[in-house]
Design brief:
single chain; two-stranded antiparallel sheet; two-stranded antiparallel ribbon; flat
Length: 257
C-alpha cells in the first residue's frame, strides 16, 4: 500500500474490521517475468521434467547423459523397482506428509527469539520465530530415533527417491493451487490480516500460469486466531522441510553405501 493507503488501512482497522469494498488494490507484482504466461507454463513443466531426466541418467545410466526417448521414460516409470521408479507410492506420500507435519509442529511450538522482518508495502513489519537451528537438530534426532527403533530404514531416501520426487511434485503443485485459490481468488478473506498488501490476489484470470508460478501473495500466513505469531507458509516451505531434508537425504545416501 502507499503511505496514505497504509495510514488509511491502520485508521480503519482501529475503527473496526476492514471491508473488502474499502480496500484499494493495485497490481504492483511482477507481470511478464519468465516469459509471462507461456514462459511460466514452460517452467512449471520443464523444471520437474529436468529433475526427472537427470535422476533417470543417474539410476539408469550411472550418471551418463542419455537420449530421453520413449524407452528412457518407460524404464524410469515402469521398469525400475518400486520406490526407485518415479511412479508414486502410498508409502512415499505418507512419509512426506509426516515429515512436513513434523516440521510444521517444530516451527510452531519450539522456543526461540522473535525477530521482525523487513518493512512491507503496507508499512508493517512481520514477526518471525528464529528456532531453525533447534528444529534442525531435533529433526535429526527424530529421524535417527525412527531408524534406531526400526520405523524406517536409514537408506529409505536412497531406496525411494523416485517416488519421493513425484510425491514432492504432487504436493508442491497442490500447495500452489491452494495458495492461488485461498489467497488469490478469495483475497477478500485476508484484508484484515497484518500482512495484507495492495497487490494481493488475482487481478486477471488470464494470468493464471504467471500467478501460479510467481505467487499471488508475498507473505501468506495462516492460524492467526490460534497462534501469537501466525504461521508463514512461504517462509516455512523455503526454509524448513526442504533444506533440512537436503541434509537428511545426503546421510541416507551415505547409509546406503
Amino acid at each position: 500500500l502507499s503511505s496514505r493507503a497504509s495510514r488509511n488501512h491502520t485508521t480503519m482497522a482501529a475503527n473496526g474490521p476492514l471491508k473488502s469494498k474499502d480496500v484499494k488494490r493495485k497490481q504492483t507484482r511482477p507481470v511478464g517475468e519468465f516469459g509471462g504466461n507461456l514462459g511460466c507454463l514452460f517452467f512449471l513443466l520443464y523444471i520437474p521434467t529436468q529433475i526427472y531426466y537427470f535422476y533417470g541418467c543417474l539410476v539408469l545410466h550411472r550418471g551418463q547423459l542419455a537420449v530421453p526417448n520413449g524407452q528412457f521414460w518407460y524404464d524410469l516409470y515402469y521398469t525400475l523397482p518400486e520406490g526407485v521408479a518415479i511412479r508414486p507410492t502410498t508409502k512415499s506420500f505418507i512419509v512426506l506428509s509426516i515429515w512436513v507435519v513434523f516440521q510444521a509442529v517444530l516451527e510452531i511450538f519450539m522456543p526461540g527469539p522473535i525477530v521482525e522482518g523487513v518493512v512491507l508495502k503496507n508499512g508493517r513489519k512481520l514477526p518471525y520465530p528464529m528456532n531453525g537451528l533447534l528444529c534442525f537438530f531435533l529433526s535429526h534426532i527424530g529421524v535417527y530415533a525412527a531408524a534406531w527403533f526400526g520405523l524406517i530404514e536409514p537408506w529409505f531416501v536412497w531406496a525411494n527417491m523416485g517416488a519421493l520426487l513425484t510425491g514432492g511434485v504432487v504436493m508442491s503443485t497442490l500447495m500452489a493451487l491452494w495458495l492461488y485459490v485461498d489467497f488469490g481468488i478469495f483475497w477478500r478473506r485476508h484484508v484484515n490480516d497484518p500482512e495484507f498488501e495492495e497487490d494481493w490476489g488475482v487481478f486477471a484470470y488470464k494470468d493464471f500460469f504467471n500467478d501460479l508460478f510467481l505467487g499471488v501473495a508475498r507473505n501468506p500466513r495462516i492460524f492467526h486466531t490460534w497462534l501469537k505469531t501466525p504461521f508463514d507458509v512461504k517462509r516455512f516451505w523455503n526454509a524448513r522441510p526442504g533444506l533440512t531434508l537436503w541434509v537428511i537425504c545426503n546421510q541416507s545416501y551415505l547409509a546406503s553405501q
